[in-house]
Design brief:
Elements: H1 18-21, H2 31-44, H3 48-61
């Protein structure tokens, strides 16, 4: 195997399925919630948006629901 490869002449291609992988949305979160996830993300070395996405995906996969009871 070569020690050096010249990738400068290669033509880059975008992933044709990238638009199907994720959906951009706007969501309003409490400052404390964002700070919490930013802190966790810094500990594990990943973007906080990815961490929030992983957490929400886990909730969806395991059908987790909040136990909320509204007072009348």
């Amino acid at each position: 195997m070569r020690d050096h490869y010249d990738f400068g002449k290669m033509k880059g291609e975008k992933n044709p399925y990238a638009s199907r992988l994720k959906q951009s949305i706007t969501i309003r979160l409490d400052k404390g919630t964002v700070s919490y996830f930013k802190g966790l993300a810094a500990e594990v070395g990943m973007p906080y948006q990815n961490l929030i996405n992983l957490y929400l995906r886990d909730c969806a996969v395991h059908h987790k629901r909040l136990a909320m009871k509204w007072s009348a």
